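Can anyone check this?
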Amino acid sequence: MKGKWHYLYRAINKQGETLDFYFSHKRNKEAAYQFLRRCLRYYDLDNQPKTLNTDKHSSYANAIARLKKEGRLRADVEQRQVKYLNNGIESDPAPIKKLVVATGGFKIRKRAWSTIQGFESLRMLNKGQFDFWLRNDERKTIVRERSAFMNRLFNVEVVYQ
Protein backbone atom coordinates (compact mmCIF):
# COMPACT_ATOMS: atom_id res chain seq x y z
CA MET A 1 0.00 0.00 0.00
CA LYS A 2 1.63 3.21 -1.18
CA GLY A 3 4.85 1.22 -1.55
CA LYS A 4 4.82 -0.05 2.06
CA TRP A 5 4.44 -3.64 3.16
CA HIS A 6 1.27 -4.77 4.90
CA TYR A 7 0.48 -8.29 6.04
CA LEU A 8 -2.60 -10.45 5.73
CA TYR A 9 -2.71 -13.03 8.51
CA ARG A 10 -5.00 -15.97 7.72
CA ALA A 11 -6.18 -19.03 9.64
CA ILE A 12 -7.63 -22.13 8.02
CA ASN A 13 -8.66 -25.47 9.45
CA LYS A 14 -7.48 -28.84 8.13
CA GLN A 15 -10.38 -28.93 5.64
CA GLY A 16 -9.12 -25.67 4.09
CA GLU A 17 -12.00 -23.56 5.38
CA THR A 18 -11.10 -19.99 6.29
CA LEU A 19 -11.51 -19.41 10.02
CA ASP A 20 -10.37 -15.80 10.25
CA PHE A 21 -8.12 -13.19 8.69
CA TYR A 22 -6.40 -10.06 9.96
CA PHE A 23 -4.80 -7.16 8.08
CA SER A 24 -1.81 -5.51 9.75
CA HIS A 25 0.83 -2.94 8.84
CA LYS A 26 3.38 -4.84 10.91
CA ARG A 27 4.51 -8.42 11.32
CA ASN A 28 5.57 -8.57 14.94
CA LYS A 29 4.67 -10.13 18.30
CA GLU A 30 1.74 -7.77 18.89
CA ALA A 31 0.20 -8.36 15.45
CA ALA A 32 0.52 -12.15 15.84
CA TYR A 33 -1.01 -11.91 19.32
CA GLN A 34 -3.95 -9.82 18.09
CA PHE A 35 -4.55 -12.22 15.22
CA LEU A 36 -4.45 -15.39 17.33
CA ARG A 37 -6.59 -13.80 20.05
CA ARG A 38 -9.10 -12.82 17.38
CA CYS A 39 -9.15 -16.38 15.99
CA LEU A 40 -9.68 -17.95 19.39
CA ARG A 41 -12.46 -15.66 20.62
CA TYR A 42 -15.21 -18.00 19.39
CA TYR A 43 -13.83 -21.14 21.03
CA ASP A 44 -13.89 -22.14 24.66
CA LEU A 45 -10.77 -23.91 25.92
CA ASP A 46 -12.24 -27.40 25.34
CA ASN A 47 -12.97 -26.72 21.67
CA GLN A 48 -9.69 -25.03 20.76
CA PRO A 49 -7.33 -26.85 18.41
CA LYS A 50 -4.70 -29.12 19.92
CA THR A 51 -2.15 -28.18 17.27
CA LEU A 52 -1.28 -24.90 15.55
CA ASN A 53 0.78 -25.08 12.37
CA THR A 54 2.64 -21.84 11.75
CA ASP A 55 5.56 -20.62 9.72
CA LYS A 56 8.91 -20.15 11.46
CA HIS A 57 8.46 -16.49 12.32
CA SER A 58 9.27 -16.06 16.03
CA SER A 59 6.30 -13.79 16.66
CA TYR A 60 3.92 -16.79 16.73
CA ALA A 61 5.80 -18.54 19.53
CA ASN A 62 5.73 -15.36 21.60
CA ALA A 63 2.03 -14.81 20.93
CA ILE A 64 1.17 -18.42 21.80
CA ALA A 65 3.14 -18.24 25.04
CA ARG A 66 1.39 -14.99 25.98
CA LEU A 67 -2.06 -16.44 25.23
CA LYS A 68 -1.29 -19.53 27.33
CA LYS A 69 -0.10 -17.34 30.21
CA GLU A 70 -3.30 -15.28 30.06
CA GLY A 71 -5.44 -18.44 30.00
CA ARG A 72 -6.90 -17.66 26.56
CA LEU A 73 -5.25 -20.68 24.95
CA ARG A 74 -5.21 -24.23 26.26
CA ALA A 75 -1.95 -25.10 27.98
CA ASP A 76 -1.41 -28.33 26.06
CA VAL A 77 -1.57 -26.79 22.57
CA GLU A 78 1.33 -27.79 20.34
CA GLN A 79 2.88 -25.37 17.89
CA ARG A 80 4.39 -27.05 14.83
CA GLN A 81 6.71 -25.07 12.60
CA VAL A 82 7.36 -27.70 9.93
CA LYS A 83 7.76 -26.26 6.46
CA TYR A 84 5.38 -28.62 4.66
CA LEU A 85 2.63 -28.75 7.28
CA ASN A 86 1.48 -25.23 6.49
CA ASN A 87 1.26 -25.74 2.71
CA GLY A 88 -2.52 -25.29 2.87
CA ILE A 89 -2.26 -21.82 4.30
CA GLU A 90 0.70 -20.89 2.10
CA SER A 91 -1.19 -21.66 -1.11
CA ASP A 92 -4.63 -20.48 0.02
CA PRO A 93 -4.16 -16.69 -0.38
CA ALA A 94 -2.90 -16.90 -3.99
CA PRO A 95 -6.33 -16.02 -5.49
CA ILE A 96 -6.60 -13.05 -3.10
CA LYS A 97 -3.17 -11.83 -4.16
CA LYS A 98 -4.24 -12.02 -7.82
CA LEU A 99 -7.31 -9.91 -7.06
CA VAL A 100 -5.25 -7.32 -5.18
CA VAL A 101 -2.81 -7.06 -8.10
CA ALA A 102 -5.75 -6.74 -10.50
CA THR A 103 -7.09 -3.79 -8.52
CA GLY A 104 -3.79 -1.98 -8.96
CA GLY A 105 -3.01 -2.09 -5.26
CA PHE A 106 -4.36 0.08 -2.49
CA LYS A 107 -3.61 3.59 -1.35
CA ILE A 108 -5.80 3.87 1.75
CA ARG A 109 -5.61 1.25 4.51
CA LYS A 110 -9.30 1.44 5.42
CA ARG A 111 -10.35 0.79 1.82
CA ALA A 112 -7.82 -2.02 1.54
CA TRP A 113 -9.28 -3.71 4.63
CA SER A 114 -12.86 -3.34 3.35
CA THR A 115 -11.95 -4.74 -0.05
CA ILE A 116 -10.00 -7.66 1.44
CA GLN A 117 -12.95 -8.47 3.71
CA GLY A 118 -15.14 -8.64 0.61
CA PHE A 119 -12.63 -10.82 -1.25
CA GLU A 120 -12.29 -13.18 1.72
CA SER A 121 -16.06 -13.41 2.24
CA LEU A 122 -16.61 -14.29 -1.40
CA ARG A 123 -13.84 -16.90 -1.24
CA MET A 124 -15.47 -18.42 1.83
CA LEU A 125 -18.80 -18.50 0.01
CA ASN A 126 -17.24 -20.10 -3.07
CA LYS A 127 -15.53 -22.71 -0.88
CA GLY A 128 -19.02 -23.67 0.32
CA GLN A 129 -18.49 -22.59 3.91
CA PHE A 130 -21.95 -21.00 4.12
CA ASP A 131 -23.80 -23.86 2.45
CA PHE A 132 -25.31 -24.94 5.77
CA TRP A 133 -27.66 -21.96 5.32
CA LEU A 134 -28.98 -23.38 2.09
CA ARG A 135 -32.05 -25.56 2.02
CA ASN A 136 -31.00 -28.33 -0.38
CA ASP A 137 -28.05 -30.65 -0.87
CA GLU A 138 -28.45 -31.07 -4.64
CA ARG A 139 -25.50 -29.57 -6.50
CA LYS A 140 -27.66 -27.72 -9.07
CA THR A 141 -29.88 -26.23 -6.36
CA ILE A 142 -26.91 -25.20 -4.17
CA VAL A 143 -25.37 -23.19 -7.01
CA ARG A 144 -28.70 -21.45 -7.69
CA GLU A 145 -29.30 -20.70 -4.00
CA ARG A 146 -25.73 -19.42 -3.60
CA SER A 147 -26.31 -17.05 -6.52
CA ALA A 148 -29.60 -15.87 -5.03
CA PHE A 149 -27.88 -15.27 -1.68
CA MET A 150 -25.17 -13.19 -3.40
CA ASN A 151 -27.80 -11.19 -5.27
CA ARG A 152 -29.60 -10.37 -2.02
CA LEU A 153 -26.34 -9.60 -0.26
CA PHE A 154 -25.22 -7.07 -2.85
CA ASN A 155 -28.71 -5.91 -3.85
CA VAL A 156 -28.13 -7.07 -7.43
CA GLU A 157 -31.84 -7.73 -8.05
CA VAL A 158 -32.47 -3.98 -8.13
CA VAL A 159 -29.99 -3.61 -11.00
CA TYR A 160 -31.79 -6.16 -13.17
CA GLN A 161 -35.37 -4.94 -12.60
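Reply from J.R.: I decoded it. The mean pLDDT is 77.
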